[in-house]
Amino acid sequence: MQPLLLGQRIRELRERHGMSQAALARTLGASINAINMLEVGSTRAPHIDRLIALADLFHVSLDYLVGRTDELVPAKKQQRSRKAVPVG
Asked: Which CATH number goes with the domain that contains 42?
């Protein structure tokens, strides 16, 4: 995960949704300082729960948020033609 890219994407999504840092902080139950630190890339390992909350709030995939893809949402999973095989 690239902290700066993550921060840029959070800021871009926040602004696209017309939210201030204060509004995002309130929505996530975080401090404005925590949001600012995410956006400037000074938080090296944000908690997974916060990342999930951000992805859900902005309707993007975690992969997009953390820079693993440039697609906002994942491609639809193809239906499997095989039956699931029980494990064990």
From this structure: 1.10.260.40
pTM of the predicted structure, to 2 decimals: 0.79
Give the number of other Cβ atoms within 10 Å of residue 68's Cβ: 13
Q: What is the pLDDT of residues 21-80, one digit of tens each?
A: 999 999 999 999 999 999 999 987 899 999 999 999 999 999 999 999 998 887 664 344
State which residues form the domain around 15: 3-66
Sign of CA dihedral 18, 65, 43, 50: positive
* Number of domains the chain contains: 1
